[in-house]
Design a protein that fits this description.
single chain, 104 residues, mainly alpha, 73% helix, rod-shaped
């Protein structure tokens, strides 16, 4: 009797699909220690890779707080903004006087 074992790729795909019960691969894994062991290895590798990726992609500790403080330091205060708007208003009034001569 020739036994054809599913490939590691087929086992991974089967596992990723939610390990449907009663299908050919599932029945084979239930009866084959070799393939059951391969499934456990694949699951262990998958969780290890996931842990490494989560750690590598996680934001550094305190990033949100440091970013908020940096933005707060760069935010202009109300007094500075009032002075800037006053200068803008004066410039606008000057431009109106120079460019728009009222007709008599």
């Amino acid at each position: 009797m020739i036994i054809t074992h599913p490939s590691p790729k087929q086992i991974r795909s089967w596992s990723d699909a939610g390990a449907p019960l009663g299908d050919r691969i599932g029945r084979h894994i239930d009866q084959c220690d070799r393939c059951a062991s391969r499934l456990e290895d694949i699951a262990a590798i998958g969780s290890t890779v996931g842990d490494v990726l989560r750690a590598a992609l996680a934001a550094p500790a305190g990033l949100a707080e440091r970013t908020e403080k940096a933005l707060e330091r760069r935010r202009p205060d109300r007094e500075s903004m009032a002075v800037a708007f006053d200068f803008f208003g004066a410039a606008t009034d000057t431009a109106k006087v120079i460019l728009f001569v009222p007709e008599a």
